[in-house]
Amino acid sequence: MNQLLSIRGLRTYFYTESGIAKAVDGVDLDIAQGEVLGLVGESGSGKSVTALSILRLIPDPPGRIVAGEILYKGRDLLKLSWDEIRKIRGNEISMVFQEPMTSLNPVFTIGMQVMEVIQAHEKVSKDEAHRRAVEILTEVGIPEPEKRMKQYPHHFSGGQRQRVMIAIALVLNPSLLIADEPTTALDVTIQAQILDLMLEMKERRAGASILLITHNLAVVAETCDRVAVMYGGKIQEIAGIDALFEAPFHPYTHGLLGSIPSVQGTKAHRLTVIPGSVPDIHSLPVGCKFVTRCPYAFEPCPDIEPPLIEDAPGHWVRCHLYPNGGKPALSPPGEPDKARSTRT
Amino acid sequence: MSDVLLEVENLVVKFPVFGGILLRRVGEVEAVKGISFQLHRGETLGLVGESGCGKTTVGRAIINILRAMSYRVEISGRILYHHASGVVDLQPLTRKQMRPYRADIQMVFQDPYSSLNPRKTVDQIVGEPLRIHTKMSRAERADRVRWLLEKVGLSARHMNRYPHEFSGGQRQRIGIARALATNPKIVIADEPVSALDVSIQAQVINLMQDLQEEFGLSYIFIAHDLSVVRHISNRIAVMSWGNIVEIGPADEIYQHPQHAYSKTLLAAAPRPDPAFNRRRRAR
């Protein structure tokens, strides 16, 4: 598969009063043409900062991309001028944010906001922009788009606003859609609709890819082809979804999967938990970022950062339990596995 | 378990809508449309539904704070609380009349950031219900706060700190300690874990289950996350548009949902199981 986007050694730091926060600290990630890649992590893991770095939307100060390259169709986005990156945004790579309530401007009509994107990027007449706005709103499933174009965001429900956001993001047919927690604020039935819509829109655009950022593993299982798990500003594991959900390598991934109660099968009496809480971003451990919470931590973990290695074809993990890309040095976490197998 | 602790009978809650220049009452929103259910001693009853279905209003009606929160709200029906020495209908009680029962029915809120007063120390926050509802001396209260903090997995060393020094999960533990201060019989938890990270959610859910076992608490667990509700609840009531459309044992509802709305809701819930999702998509 052809890589659409390759991130290499990305480091985005925030220089704050309480020190340097290494929000993203050496991320390598590839997104292939036509794939849906999930980027999973808890708050503070660096997943959103990674996404914002791709489009150079990091507020500077306090944030700065200090190292790395982001190759998009062979060009390094980090080396582009302001004007050039503006052409990439919307045309090539666009983004959908979490809050459908705040990402639309309340004082402009929906029509104006959709048309604005078209007119900002292309020299088209107002009529043409209007026609295309109606077309895209129809495509994302807004009923009576002609009439709805004249209405304001407060006339729209949360799910409909998110549809409008998707319309705005896709109206210029970008090759990559970055969706940052697109369904977190929505009800489950609406969430299912929006996820389906995103996949449907992708299918209609040959070679288009989605980077889906979420904290919800169930949403990932529902939509993605591959998943990258982030923790402490680093990718900890990358795998195809089947491999990740059936046989995760990293103790953190094990812990995350064990923490989710299930809606089917027999009910577990207790959830397995990851002890402790996410370490402070200003004082992350020197070695493995997960060492403070890992039940399998051993001698090298606190001091030496393990490399991200390919332990099985296409399945990468950053953990000392997997030293040479072979069998794990210690028996891998057992209990979460057992708990999961009762469900099948 | 069959022992009834709380009976809600035909509860109706209407919020008036005011409009026009004179702000006359121009209409009403019927948030809860006559629901009935029972809560048994020691059980967890899950209330699920989508936003706007009325689940939060039901919780607030039970602890009788709707009148304080909303001008001219209209409530009817009965909320029968079976306490040690009889039965009382909480619904028509005034603030003052409600006070003796308030210690028995406590609440844990969704947002651990806004539900703790930022200008008070943990000691003051957890000790406040004790100050109001008991005649404990300052030293006795301090002892109890220390004990409570340890029960919820915090350290007594944290007593003099302020909420901003804690993480979301720790704050939710403080909220739980506050709810437990007066030895309540019923705890109403309104989306207690939805603002927390996945790994922290599991910790708080396990904690709530441990405390329930230790203190024989009854929970009304209000949430939109179907997997969390199923995990913690013995029985579940599914709400839609102010009505309970289905109520029954948790496993029964999840394995054989009867009502069309319960089926839709369950079908929409994402599952951490790629193979299942593929089968569903293929259908």
| Element-level helix/strand string of chain A | EEEHEEHEHHHHEHEHEEHHEEH
Structural class of chain A: alpha/beta
Oligomerization: heterodimer
Strand order, largest beta sheet of chain A: 6-7-8-3-9-10-12-11
How would you sum up the global shape of chain B? globular
List the helices and strands and how they pair.
The complex is a heterodimer of chains A (344) and B (283).
Chain A: E1 3-16, E2 19-32, E3 36-40, H1 47-54, E4 63-72, E5 75-76, H2 82-88, E6 93-96, H3 110-121, H4 126-139, H5 145-148, H6 158-170, E7 176-180, H7 188-203, E8 209-214, H8 217-223, E9 226-231, E10 234-240, H9 241-246, H10 251-258, E11 308-312, E12 315-318, H11 335-341
Parallel strand pairs in A: 3-8, 3-9, 6-7, 7-8
Antiparallel strand pairs in A: 1-2, 1-4, 4-5, 9-10, 10-12, 11-12
Helix pairs in contact in A: 3-4, 4-6, 6-7, 10-11
Chain B: E1 4-19, E2 24-40, E3 44-48, H1 55-62, H2 66-69, E4 74-83, E5 86-89, H3 95-102, E6 105-108, H4 122-133, H5 138-151, H6 168-180, E7 186-190, H7 198-215, E8 218-223, H8 226-232, E9 235-240, E10 243-249, H9 250-255, H10 260-268, H11 274-282
Parallel strand pairs in B: 3-8, 3-9, 6-7, 7-8
Antiparallel strand pairs in B: 1-2, 1-4, 4-5, 9-10
Helix pairs in contact in B: 4-5, 4-6, 5-6, 6-7
